[in-house]
Write the structure tokens for this entry.
Amino acid sequence: RQVALDWQITVTGINAAWGLFDPTPGALPWRDVRIGHIDTGCTRSPMLGFHGSNSDYVRHDLGKNFFGDFLPPPNLDVPNYDPPEETGPFDNLTGANGGHGTRTSSVLAGFYDAPDHSKPPFYGAAPGACVIPYRVTNSILIDHVQRLIVLAINDAIAKQCRVISMSLGGIVRYSRLADAIDRAYEAGVIVCAAAGNVIEEVTYPGRYNRVVTVGGVSPVGTTGFKPWDGASRGEFVDICGPASDIRRASVKRRNGELDFFITPGGNGTSYATALCAGVAALWLARRRADLTAAYGDPDWHWPAAFKRLLKETAECPAGWDTTKWGRGLYRADRLLSAALPAVDSLHKESEAMAPIDPLA
């Protein structure tokens, strides 16, 4: 059926990118692209494919909770039964940013249509892509949990995630996190990181080389965009994505029960980053055979090619300040249609903690 799509899907050409795949009924070509989603964890939201305990595509069985703060045991009225706490990568909605992982993963890979069509459907950038959730924090400020992010990155590499999405930020450099990003890059993993919000300076890990650092835009009219005033900016920003007026899945605890719903008005480079990770999954699904033919098994050439093409195919309006906002707004349709760079033309970025790489 014909439906109105959210602005973050149309302005980036994501809907047009979906149309580039062969239309096989019931098939999602990007379903097997694994995306490590490092955040506050997930909830069992129907907007994330959950039907009771399990999801069609969010692999909580592969994810991990490195943070603790586990869900309490279910309130089962069974005599002499003391069930353990649930220790998977589930967000118990505590802390400053409870539910953040649900909101960002929905923008990345959400896929929901109300059975009675009573509400507009909801689609993330790569609807139904394989998301592996990690709970590393209950706040988007992560200076105190950077060692846990290292563990999550290492686990995502081991589980053959091809994309990692981090809508988190801190102000302190941490060499072990930089080393983990280097390992991911060398293993051929595309790492997307948020530029940050409120403060002007880009936060870590967005300040590191070898990540795709994503700033934000807000809508102008029905088809235009401009830099979002709340986004961090500067030389570390590679690209921008939708970061204002975002419709996304949300969750609240009401009277002891979780209430799942979709709400508009979300702001933050967290959403631009999750969308970018979804675009990366679409690109990998579309270009996987070509990437293997051009560069061999996954290594640094894969994220290098992605980052280069993401910039080269971006929409950059007249007057756009590339010193603050990167190369423009990513365009999934143009990206997926672009030929891969020749292997000998690709440049290997300097290590994550090296001074900023002007060729990146």
